[in-house]
Amino acid sequence: xxxRTYWYVSTLVLLSMSSVCLAQNAAGARQLExxxxxxxxxxxxLIEAKTDDERATLLTQNKELITAELTQLxxxxxxxxxxxxxxxxxxxxxxxxxxxxxxxxxKVLLARALTTLGNIYRMQGNDEIALRHLxxxxxxxxxxxxxxxxxxxxxxxxxxxxxxxNYDEARLQRLLKLAEE
Length: 181
Hints:
The protein is an all-alpha fold and about 180 residues long. The chain has helices at about 1-50, 50-60, 70-85, 85-105, 105-125, 125-145, 145-165, 170-180. It is elongated. The mean pLDDT is about 85.
C-alpha cells in the first residue's frame, strides 16, 4: 500500500512538473514569436530609413532588438537580392547587416557581411570601396582564424589585383596555399 501511494504521489508530482514545463515552453514560444515579430518590424524600419543617420538613431533607440538573428536576417535578405541580381537592394541589406553587427559587436557576422559587400562592389567595378571592405574583412577573419573567410577575402583581393595589373605574388601564393588546405 505504501509503495502504491508513493508511486501515485510520484506520478502526480511528475505530471504536475510536466504541466508546468509545458506551460513554460508555450509561454517561451509565444515570447520568441513576439520577439521575432518585433525584430521583423524593426528590420522593416531600418530598410525604410532614408539616411544612415536615421538608421543610427533607430539602432540606438532599439538596442534590445539588436541581435545576431537580426544580422542574419539582413545577410539572408542580401543573399536573396544578390541571387535575384538586384545589386542595390543587396548592398543595402549587407550595409545594414554591417551596422547591426557592429552595434552588437559580432565580429564573425561583420566579417561575413564585409566580405560579401567587398565582392559585390568588386563585381560592380567599385574597386576602391571593394578593397576597403575586403581588407577590413580579412583582418577580422584573420583575428578569428577563419580559414574560409580568409580564403574568400584573399580571393577577391587577388582578383582586384589582377584586374588592376597590380599582381602581388606573395598574396597569390598565400591564396594558393589556403586552397590546398
